[in-house]
Write a structure and sequence with these properties.
The protein has 378 residues and is α+β, with helices and mostly antiparallel strands. It contains 14 helices and 10 strands. The protein folds into 2 domains: 107 residues, Glutaredoxin, CATH 3.40.30.10; 223 residues, Alpha/alpha barrel (Glycosyltransferase), CATH 1.50.10.
């Protein structure tokens, strides 16, 4: 992500960048957010595109930009409850403070506060200077951390209670707020319901899958699933599309179609696979990572209108874990949908990421190629 559009010359996360910060006695500004995040894109275009902001950042900070999908190690350490993350670090990498999205005027004020604190206290940790925290986007899914092993009957009963207690009896899904697919919780209900012949657990799965299909989480025009919905009634979707979520939804739908004998779920899985193969499958094997949110595009109700608008960019990074998750869903799809081509593509995908990232004695890597963003149609 070195350079890029705008007035700030962003640097990669590297020892050289931090060495420069130490030599020049400057704090590090770490701008972090994934390629699919609309808020991250807006902050880079608007806030960091402001000439006054760009001048202060370029002259007084060492600016580093990181995509946490490409560098999950950095994301796990420095993400502040969501994206975009605006973090300020010492040249030694200690966190000075930070928060989320900032408009140009607020960002200018915070930059001044950080500089004053850094100059006054140097390497010491300083307060966040009033930086607003970013509202987290964690859903209210059932916990999966009982005190006893999961294979005991006590743990099973605890899980049953978690699933039933957190289920939204009005709108389906889990929790009273924003709605997500929560595929792990739903698959747990599905498998647990089969084991104990529980009609209530099966009902949790069917009602939620039907609510997802009828609500805003599904792209009714092109297929695939959006990331999550802001409202408890499955409306106001955040319209980025992530490979991993779509892979998990395919797996869940296929599994539910078998266990519950619901052919409609297999049809929905097949439709999602068609979307994934059209938008995310790499001809060389593997799957692209995500498609950026564009609410104006997603609000259009026909393929023709969307074609005139232009598709949101696809992050053509091929991540090993996401590709493996989708390949696994393809293998299950080959069996349930009786489509041999799916297992053949899955094998090609796995071969590619293993061959490109495996190091003897070190296992497989995280990314099969360097991240690029390009139009999906290219």
């Amino acid at each position: 992500m070195t350079g890029g559009s705008g007035l700030i010359q962003w640097r990669e996360w590297s020892s050289d960048a931090f060495a420069s910060a130490a030599h020049e006695r400057k704090p590090v500004l770490l701008a972090m957010g994934p390629a699919w995040c609309l808020g991250t894109d807006k902050m880079h275009r608007v806030s960091y595109g402001d000439p006054d902001v760009a001048r202060v950042v370029s002259e007084r900070f060492v600016p580093i930009r990181v995509d946490p999908d490409r560098r999950p190690d950095i994301g796990e350490r420095y993400t502040l409850d969501g994206w975009p993350t605006t973090a300020f670090l010492t040249p030694a990498g200690a966190l000075l403070g930070g928060g989320g999205h900032l408009d140009p005027a607020r960002l200018l004020m915070v930059l001044t506060q950080v500089l004053d604190a850094f100059e006054a206290r140097g390497e010491e940790r300083v307060a966040d200077g009033g930086l607003p925290g970013h509202t987290g986007e964690r859903g209210d899914a059932p916990s999966v951390q009982p005190s006893s092993p999961l294979d005991t009957e006590e743990a099973g009963l605890w899980l049953d209670d978690q699933l039933r207690t957190r289920f939204d009896q009005v709108w389906a899904g889990f929790g009273p707020g924003a709605k997500r697919a929560h595929t792990a919780a739903l698959k747990a209900a599905l498998l647990r319901g089969r084991r104990v012949a529980s009609a209530s657990l099966a009902d949790i799965v069917t009602r939620t899958l039907d609510a997802i299909a009828d609500g805003g989480l599904v792209d009714a025009v092109e297929g695939g699933f959006f990331r999550y919905c802001e409202e408890p009634d499955w409306s106001r979707p955040h319209v980025e599309k992530l490979l991993t979520l779509n892979a998990r939804m395919v797996d869940l739908l296929l599994t539910a179609s078998r266990i519950l004998d619901r052919p409609l779920y297999a049809e929905r899985a097949a439709a999602t696979i068609r979307f994934v193969h059209d938008r995310f499958a790499d001809a060389d094997g593997g799957f692209f990572a995500s498609q950026r949110a564009d609410p104006d595009y997603s609000a259009l109700t026909s393929v023709e209108e969307r074609g005139r608008h232009g598709e949101p960019p696809v992050d053509r990074s091929v991540y090993v874990d996401a590709t493996a998750t989708m390949a696994s869903a393809y293998v299950l799809g080959a069996a349930v949908l009786e489509d041999r081509s799916l297992v053949e593509f899955a094998a090609t995908a796995v071969d590619r990421v293993v061959m490109e990232t495996y190091e003897r004695g070190g296992g497989v890597g995280h990314s099969a190629q360097r991240a690029t963003c390009a139009r999906a149609a290219e």
